[in-house]
């Protein structure tokens, strides 16, 4: 009678199954991290655009009529479904930059993510 010192096919299949579960978990966590990083990138770009409009408004004493068109085009180029809104109110201007599926009218506070908005008061 001979003894075999090796692995059976069942052991190899079980090891491959466990390894595939491990790789699936790594891939899922990596895609979640990439999604969060992309959301933070969008937030930083929107914040940069909002501060750009605020600084332009302050430098030109609120006269932004000629600059708004270029500013909105730049937002559309930088952010997915990006939109820039300047609301002139009695207490001052509110600059809203939104992207993704965020509703600009319901955006009261800044939120980061794949869809979000930045609210800045001048």
What does this structure look like?
This protein is an alpha+beta fold and 122 residues long. The chain contains 2 helices and 3 strands; from the N terminus they run ααβββ. It has a 3-stranded antiparallel β-sheet. A hairpin with a 2-residue loop joins strand 1 and strand 2. Helix 1 packs antiparallel against helix 2. The chain is rod-shaped, with a radius of gyration of 25 Å.
Main attributes of the structure:
122 residues; alpha+beta; 2 helices; 3 strands; 51% helix; rod-shaped
TL;DR?
The chain has 122 residues and is an alpha+beta fold. It has helices spanning 9-59, 68-78; strands spanning 83-89, 92-99, 116-121. The protein has a three-stranded antiparallel sheet with strand order 1-2-3.
Indicate the topology.
Layout: H1 9-59, H2 68-78, E1 83-89, E2 92-99, E3 116-121
Antiparallel strand pairs: 1-2, 2-3
Helix pairs in contact: 1-2
Provide the low-confidence segments as ranges.
none
Overall number of structural domains: 1
Mean pLDDT: 87
Q: Report the β-strand fraction as a percent range.
A: 15-25%
Widest sheet, order of strands: 1-2-3
The sequence of SSEs as H and E is: HHEEE
Q: Strand pairing plus helix content: what structural class?
A: alpha+beta
| End-to-end CA span | 89 Å
Shape: rod-shaped
Q: Summarize the main sheet.
A: 3 strands, antiparallel
- Tally of DSSP helical segments: 2
Gyration radius, rounded? 25 Å
Q: Helical content, roughly?
A: 40-55%
Q: Give the beta-strand count.
A: 3
